[in-house]
Amino acid sequence: MSTAHVTRIEGPLDLQDALARRAPIEQAKGILMAVHHISADEAFALLLDRSQSANRKVHDIAREFVDEMSHLP
Question: In this structure, are residues 32 and 43 in contact, taking their beta carbons and an 8 Å threshold?
Fold first, then answer.
């Protein structure tokens, strides 16, 4: 008889945190898609590339990008 692997089920706080981190990523993707006329996958690849080259998390890169874009004249 094999032992089943137990995984942790996310609670409400984990879900809220995940959604809070995902929102800026989706917003940044939308901006990139509109400006560069690219697909969602291509927009995410741009964010991922920037994240890796800066050695920072994607959600941090996305949040800063959205903040910068929202303050343009």
Answer: yes
